[in-house]
Design brief:
The structure is a homodimer. By secondary structure, chain A is an alpha/beta fold. Chain A contains ten helices and twelve strands.
Chain lengths: 286, 286
């Protein structure tokens, strides 16, 4: 029986989601975490780190559209982009579709994630293929952020949950370094957990961002294979506002096709429900 | 072991969600379905019909805000409201908060659902308490819709999934009767399943509505304890448009407090992602 499904447990909230699988494709303990790819029966291939679902072939387009396009269509000229984490390649894939992007650096701490995805998740790993505009650094994103001499227009923090290797990606020191390496009109977007199940973490993170940036917002979307489905990214900006400075003709003129993102979805994603505003509203800055 | 959790299986998509429970509070086979209330460890009390989660105390506010308030704040003067289904009382609770509502009829087919909720789910059943503006009819909603001589400003179809007793609530004959019993400016909102897992059903339903109504839209929200989280209501209207005719000062002036709904959420909910528009866009009417 145990080989026939994978299960993500949410111990804090006393529930678990079990996916039936055809077979396991990859399973390796890295220095940081257990990295696994399975072929599910209902959601295509699935990547799990330490038994937590990171992505599935069936719904990854939602997450990757929303971590990339709201920021890259808010910034009027995103030429240099940095991705911290994102070892599956999905964020890089979407960033590189923007023709203004001249350089996309990606800093992933765990090369085993990259290895697993290159072998078994081509749908996202395609973003990491040989490309003169793309550089992959296997490195600690926290250290990279502290030491890099480079400046970026958009930084995307595509991290796992704030436990294990990703924990320092949620603190104040890291975001001071992010702020320092962002150009004048820079924007940082970060994976920000569930407004429902991780409200304390959302509050801490919005406070950290509000101490640094003049514009702090959150955007929500539905990632079907994350607990509860409801999920957020934080959006902090030095200058460009995601609603007031959003010019939807840039989306149309890009001629890019998306399965989830469009201008209405862009604006709608920044509309937060009252229970989330009660939690983080004091730290949002407009 | 079997008494320690409830499990909702999604056989078509090969996954299951398991909730740990403290104890079972109610379990009865009605003429229509197995009706169950359990005390979960993470989501408060939970109502299940035939082992499918209908609501939990922890997240029911999202569903009930979104099935009621977008319609009742779009219609400029909703005086008579009909709820088909909704036997937990949550939709009635939200409808009756609107002071313009003079009469709210509710037609629930299964009195065992009402009995279970009155005994064990006061948070929603409060909507069904003695009130001169409220009438509960234990009756078949399909027959009621065919035979009632009454007219309504808003009809809310708060049904279970389109299997078992609720199946006829998703067809064309039912909606012809809904149309016939709506006043000139009438609006009907219906539970419309997942844009991700139930796309065929969303397509059929939007087609049925588009043959009758001049305005057909869908709105999305995240119900954490439904499969995948991502969920829709259909919104069909004879006259009032949910965006163009939406006057957000009415929300402010109502002085009602909501945990999920607000004017930005109202507008944002009608922004559909491209994959859903590809499925139903041809039947949306603006």
């Amino acid at each position: 029986m145990s080989a026939d499904f994978v299960e993500e447990k949410n111990s804090e909230n006393f529930f678990a989601v079990r996916y039936e699988i055809e077979r396991s494709l990859f399973c390796k303990q890295s220095r940081f975490q257990k990295v696994e790819v399975v072929e599910t029966k209902g959601h295509g291939r699935m990547l799990l780190n330490d038994d937590l679902v990171m992505l599935t072939e069936r719904d990854e387009f939602v997450y990757h559209d929303m971590i990339v396009h709201p920021a890259l269509f808010t910034h009027p000229n995103p030429r240099r982009v940095l991705i911290i984490g994102g070892g599956d390649g999905g964020a890089a894939r979407e960033v590189l579709r923007h023709s203004q992007v001249e350089k996309c650096d990606m800093v992933e701490i765990d090369e085993v994630v990259v290895e697993a995805c290159r072998e078994f998740l081509p749908v996202t790993a395609v973003g990491m293929k040989e490309n003169s505009r793309f550089s992959l650094h296997i490195d600690d994103g926290v250290r990279y952020m502290r030491e890099t001499p480079d400046f970026y227009d958009v930084i995307i923090v595509d991290s796992t949950d704030p436990i294990g290797p990703a924990a320092p990606l949620f603190n104040s020191e890291f975001y001071r370094n992010v702020y320092a390496r962002l150009n004048d009109g820079g924007i940082v977007v970060s994976q920000a957990e569930s407004p429902f199940y991780n409200s304390a973490m959302q509050r801490t993170m919005s406070q950290v961002l509000s101490e640094l940036f003049p514009i702090v917002r959150y955007l929500n979307f539905t990632n079907l294979t994350y607990p509860g489905g409801y999920w957020s990214f934080s959006f902090a900006s030095k200058k460009w506002h995601p609603i007031r400075d959003f010019d939807e003709s840039r989306v149309v003129n890009s001629k890019l096709q998306f399965r989830y993102y469009n201008p209405e979805v862009h604006r709608g994603a920044f509309a937060l429900p009252n229970f989330q505003l009660e939690n983080i509203g004091a730290f949002l800055k407009d």
